[in-house]
Structures are given as structure tokens and as C-alpha cells.
Design a protein that fits this description.
Layout (H helix, E strand, L loop, with lengths): L1 H5 L14 H16 L9 H5 L1 H9 L22 H18 L16 H18 L3
């Protein structure tokens, strides 16, 4: 994953979607930080809370995400982001995840609750792979 991230630069264009490379780095970092328990998930719409079980199943299954899928409002990137800053943030959040992957207890995800070691790792890989593939790496 780190090697793929390092193959990106600020000018890398996506094969689909509207995010810039800097916005994608910020988006992935934000999602990783929430899973890590180092950032809160705020202002979840009531509708999302109603279907969280369905969303959780989609997050942890092995079916790839379809292109241009909607995301939680907190994860949506509408402002331009500095690529190098967000890349460092994303890499730092991945390093934190790696350092704590074998902790006996992980924080509950604010939407999905407690996730197994496998669910945590797979859900992050699946998500980040989706966006790295979006940018051709």
C-alpha cells in the first residue's frame, strides 16, 4: 500500500470521480483515522444510522466498491488539499494502524461498532485499494 501511495504525485489524475490526488489522500486519511480511533465521526445523518448494518456488510464483504459511490459527509472532500501534507497524514495514519494492529482491544468504530481484526484490516485495504486503483496505482 505504501509503495502504491509513493507512486502518486499531486498531478495524478483519477480514472473516474472528481477528487484530486490531494483530496483522495485526505479522504483516505480521514477514514483511517476514524477507524484508528484517533478522530471522531461527527454529524452522521439519521438515514445512515438506519442502514448502518447494510453499510457494514458492504464494507466488510469481498465485493469491490462501485465507482462514484456516496460517502459519509465528513469524508467528502470539497476543498482543495495540499498533496504532500495529506500524503504524510495518510501514511502516518497507516503507520499507526500497523503499530496497533495486534493490540488486544481496538476502539469500536463509531458507526459499525466493534470489528474483528480481519474486518478492520480488510475494510481498510478494500477502501484504500479502491481509491489507489481510481488513481491508477
Amino acid at each position: 500500500m505504501v509503495e502504491r501511495i509513493n507512486n502518486l504525485d499531486a498531478d495524478t489524475k483519477p480514472d473516474w470521480g472528481e477528487m484530486s490526488a490531494g483530496q483522495m489522500m485526505a479522504h483516505c486519511a480521514e477514514i483511517q483515522e476514524v477507524l484508528n480511533g484517533t478522530k471522531t465521526l461527527d454529524h452522521t445523518p439519521f438515514f445512515i444510522k438506519l442502514i448502518k448494518g447494510f453499510i457494514r456488510k458492504m464494507v466488510v464483504n469481498d465485493v469491490p466498491y462501485r465507482h462514484s459511490l456516496q460517502t459519509h459527509p465528513q469524508y467528502k472532500q470539497t476543498e482543495e488539499r495540499d498533496f504532500e501534507t495529506e500524503k504524510a497524514r495518510f501514511l502516518s495514519s497507516l503507520e499507526f494502524f500497523k503499530e496497533h494492529e495486534h493490540d488486544a482491544v481496538h476502539p469500536a468504530h463509531p458507526l459499525f461498532g466493534y470489528m474483528s481484526h480481519h474486518e478492520r484490516g480488510w475494510s481498510m485495504y478494500k477502501h484504500h485499494d479502491h481509491h489507489l486503483t481510481q488513481f491508477g496505482v
